[in-house]
């Protein structure tokens, strides 16, 4: 639908101009480790430092946005995708007496976002907002060497970070932008778009 695509394109354009959207800096994150590998149980921690997500400003609408009108409210599903969305970080792996400083590169993949909006007394507002969990995540750890068995532990910690902290940061930034763009779109579209 042309109106849906226009709205989504406005949201994407507004996101690209936001300070802190690209690059997006993620705070320090520590994960306690307690994992059995073979017959040995390893305890320690993984510290993710200086994590930066890049490539978000190159995101674009993928395919047509779909909007379904339900009693004056509408639900939109959009997919933002760019193969260049990545996260880079320095990490510290501490297991027993072993302390290793590593670098990490993560290919995040695409973002699928659903939001619903409706007309309230004060005007259009976002009622629901959801970013799907990251699915197509590829992790590259540099400097593991003999610590190669820990790749699964590191991978699990990174996916947990991406699916919690990174998604939350993107949500915090996107929700007010979507709300603002929905208001502008509905105010500037005459006659009102038929969703």
Description:
The protein is of the alpha+beta class and 195 residues long. It has one domain (2-188): Bactericidal permeability-increasing protein, domain 1 (Super Roll), CATH 3.15.10. 27% of the residues lie in helices and 45% in strands. It has 2 helices and 11 strands. The strands form 2 sheets. Strands 1, 2, 3, 7, 8 and 11 form a 6-stranded antiparallel β-sheet that branches. A hairpin with a 2-residue loop joins strand 7 and strand 8 (98-107). Helix 1 (2-16) crosses helix 2. The chain starts with a helix and ends in a 7-residue tail after the last helix. The mean pLDDT is 77.
What's the alpha carbon Rg, rounded to whole Å?
Answer: 20 Å
What is the structural class?
alpha+beta
Estimated share of beta-strand residues: 35-45%
Helices and strands, in order, run as: HEEEEEEEEEEEH
Morphology: elongated
Mean pLDDT equals: 77
**Looking at CATH, which topology would you report?**
Bactericidal permeability-increasing protein, domain 1
**Strand segment count:** 11
Give the biggest beta sheet: 6 strands, antiparallel
CATH architecture: Super Roll
- State the name of the first-level CATH class: Alpha Beta
Helix content: 25-40%
InterPro entries: Mite_allergen_7_sf (IPR038602), Mite_allergen_group-7 (IPR020234)
Protein name: Blo t 7
Pfam family, one: Grp7_allergen
Organism: Blomia tropicalis (Mite)
What is the structure about, briefly put?
This protein has 195 residues and is an alpha+beta fold. The protein is built from 2 helices and 11 strands. A hairpin with a 2-residue loop joins β5 and β6 (73-81).
């Amino acid at each position: 639908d042309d109106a849906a695509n226009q709205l989504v394109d406005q949201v994407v354009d507004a996101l690209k101009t936001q300070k802190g959207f690209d690059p997006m800096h993620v705070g320090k994150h520590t994960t306690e480790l307690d994992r059995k590998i073979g017959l040995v149980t390893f305890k320690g921690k993984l510290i993710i430092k200086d994590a930066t997500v890049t490539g978000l400003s190159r995101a674009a609408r993928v395919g047509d946005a779909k909007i379904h009108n339900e009693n004056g409210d509408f639900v939109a599903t959009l997919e933002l995708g760019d193969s260049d969305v990545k996260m880079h970080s320095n990490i510290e792996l501490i297991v027993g007496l072993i302390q290793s400083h590593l670098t990490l590169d993560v290919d995040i993949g695409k973002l699928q976002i659903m939001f619903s909006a409706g007309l309230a007394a004060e005007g259009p507002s976002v009622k629901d907002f959801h970013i799907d969990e990251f699915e197509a995540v590829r992790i590259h750890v540099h400097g593991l060497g003999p610590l190669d068995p820990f790749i699964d532990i590191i991978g699990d910690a990174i996916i947990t970070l991406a699916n919690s902290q990174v998604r939350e940061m993107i949500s915090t930034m996107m929700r007010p932008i979507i709300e603002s763009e929905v208001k502008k779109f509905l105010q500037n579209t005459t006659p009102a778009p038929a969703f």
